[in-house]
Amino acid sequence: MPDHIKKQLLEEIQVLEHELAHELPAEIKKAVALGDLSENAEYHMAKQRQTFVNARLGQLKRRMAELSLVNLANIPHGKVGFGSTIVVFDSTKEEEIVYRLVTSEESDVSKGLISTTSPIGRGLVGKKVGDVATIVTPNGKRELEVLKLTTIHDEAEAAAKNGAAADSNQ
In the chain, which residues fall in CATH 1.10.287.180? Predict the structure, then answer.
């Protein structure tokens, strides 16, 4: 899991746990002191927020568990997978597009960062250079031909070579 994503999720978990353990109990206690709970808007809002925070905490903890199970060794060499940068030719738009497959937390279509769970991401996973993926999107079918592929393994090898070259230049 990318460190910045792990940090982001952990920060949100800490904020929500603090709210659940300290802020919400104080709000509920204050609301209870106001009396009749059946018509107490402050009490009902605090209880609703407590339910929401508990649900969000559950989601975040499940997501952390899922991401911690990602084994980079299982990501294929020579095929599109998590962390790959792909240059595709979109025959529908008659243009080349660069995508990078990332986690759903990192996705930003305007920057070419697409989730492995998005329709395009799912359609490209497992493809290699020369393959054509037919993808059904909300805007209709698109045919994407993989022109160039850099996997997460290729990037790690290039970084290692660059690091070795930098060390030898010193």
Answer: 3-69
Q: What is the pLDDT of residue 10?
A: 87
Other residues' Cβ atoms within 10 Å of the Cβ of residue 111 = 12
Cα–Cα nearest to 150, from 89, 80, 75: 80
Question: Which residue type is seen at 90?
Answer: D
CATH 3.10.50.30, the chain: domain bounds: 74-152
Taking domain 74-152, whether its CATH number is 3.40.50.720 is answered by: no
Q: Residue 132 pairs with which residues in a beta bridge?
A: 145
Give the model's pLDDT for residue 48: 93
- Residue 75 DSSP class: S
Name, in order, each residue with C-beta under 8 angstroms of 61's C-beta and a sequence gap of 6 or more: 13
- Other CB atoms within 10 A of residue 159 CB: 10
Q: Are 144 and 90 in contact (CB under 8 A)?
A: yes
Instruction: Indicate if the pLDDT at residue 72 is higher than 80.
Output: no
Pairing of strands 113-115, 95-102: parallel
pLDDT in tens, 89-140: 998 889 999 999 988 888 888 999 999 889 999 999 999 999 999 998 888 8
Q: Does domain 3-69 sit in CATH 1.10.1040.10?
A: no
Task: Give the number of other Cβ atoms within 10 Å of residue 124's Cβ.
Answer: 25
